[in-house]
UniProtKB/TrEMBL annotation:
Chain residue ranges for the region called G4: 118-121
Membrane topology: Peripheral membrane protein
Region G1, annotated ranges: 10-17
Biological processes annotated in GO: ribosomal small subunit assembly
Statement: the UniProt record of this protein carries the keyword Membrane: yes
Residues the record lists as binding GTP: 10-17, 57-61, 118-121
Descriptive protein name: GTPase Era
Region annotated G5, chain positions: 148-150
Keyword set, alphabetical order: Cell membrane, Cytoplasm, GTP-binding, Membrane, Nucleotide-binding, Ribosome biogenesis, RNA-binding, rRNA-binding
Similarity remark: Belongs to the TRAFAC class TrmE-Era-EngA-EngB-Septin-like GTPase superfamily. Era GTPase family.
PANTHER family membership: GTPASE ERA, GTPASE ERA, MITOCHONDRIAL
NCBIfam families noted in UniProt: era, PRK00089.1, small_GTP
């Protein structure tokens, strides 16, 4: 067996979560059009006849906000890189921004990352890719370059083959049918967060934490109760909406996703609570799965 840990790095929104979900074949990490939706490190596991790949989905590297939450996010990028066998850097086709460059510089010097150029489906003519590819090849740090479309699942097979061939030999670390080391409860929180990102304005999802208070298997359904923590009463009002309409829409959409994921009927109760400064509360962040 070849077994190893693979880190996906890249600036926010390049499609790391989408790529991970496609590789592992299940919706593990939430995706949205907005940047910086991944807060904690999620592992996806892909087991094939002779290979087990353990993917570490690192949060998008960002410099825009300060605060404990974001420091923890940036630190987990560097931490993750110290313990992995392969680093995959993801960028968007035809784009190489200062943020991409900063990420490349953050990868420790001894590591030769593999470059995935994602979203090639957006490139109208392949000729436009030639100078872009040449420029990337001149950046001699990459061990290999793979243009792909995570969304359309195209060109992923050569990438998987290459990754498998370059992992160390060793025993299985997870059962073959395991796709993640996270619990179902964790994913339920992620599905709720995904709806916050889809249904709210720009700022609020970042100011909201989801806590699963109850998760009980009953005879005919799974009963889940969750609290959405916000920073101030104004945010609470926005989140609840006119006569509760927004919270209801978030709850309904999240419940449908959760039912699909758990393959069971679900009751989902959502409450909104104001707790100012939650993003600076180390104990709370730990409970939510952030390491310090
Ligand atoms: N056209 C196109 N869009 C893609 C592709 N892969 C991802 N996207 C879109 O890009 C957006 C961002 O994707 P994510 O997977 O959330 O990006 P991420 O890098 O994980 O972002 P963070 O979680 O913020 O770090 C989503 O709207 C995806 O649907 C692709 O191959 N082609």
């Amino acid at each position: 067996m070849r077994v190893g840990r693979i880190a996906l790095v890249g600036r926010p929104n390049v499609g790391k979560s989408t790529l991970l979900n496609q590789l592992v074949g299940q919706k593990l990490s939430i995706t949205s059009r907005r940047a910086q939706t991944t807060r904690v490190q999620v592992q996806g596991i892909l087991t094939m006849p002779e290979v087990q790949m353990i993917f570490v989905d690192t949060p998008g590297f960002q410099q825009q906000y300060g605060g404990m939450l974001y420091r923890s996010m940036n630190r987990s990028v560097t931490d993750a890189l110290g313990t992995v066998d392969q680093v995959v850097m993801v960028v968007e086709a035809l784009r190489w921004t200062p943020a991409d460059q900063a990420i490349l510089l953050q990868i420790p010097a001894g590591i030769r990352p593999l470059l995935v150029i994602n979203k090639v489906d957006r490139v109208a003519s392949s000729e436009r890719m030639i100078p872009y590819l040449q420029a990337r090849q001149e950046e001699t740090r990459f061990s290999a370059i793979f243009p792909v479309s995570a969304l359309q699942r195209s060109c992923l097979d050569p990438l998987v083959r290459y990754l498998g061939q370059h992992l160390p030999e060793g025993p299985l670390q997870y059962e073959p049918d395991q796709v993640s080391d996270r619990t179902e409860r964790f994913f339920v929180g992620e599905f709720i967060r995904e709806q916050l990102f889809r249904q709210l304005g720009d700022e609020l999802p970042y100011a909201t934490a989801v806590m699963i208070d109850r998760y009980v298997q009953e005879e005919r359904l799974i009963r889940i109760e969750a609290t959405l923590l916000v920073d101030n009463p104004g945010q609470k009002a926005i989140l609840i909406g006119q006569q509760g309409s927004r919270l209801k829409a978030i709850g309904t959409a999240a419940r449908l996703q959760i039912e699909k994921f758990l393959e069971s009927k679900v009751y989902l109760g959502l409450w909104v609570k104001v707790k100012s400064g939650w993003a600076e509360d180390g104990t709370l962040l730990k409970q939510l799965g952030h390491d310090f």
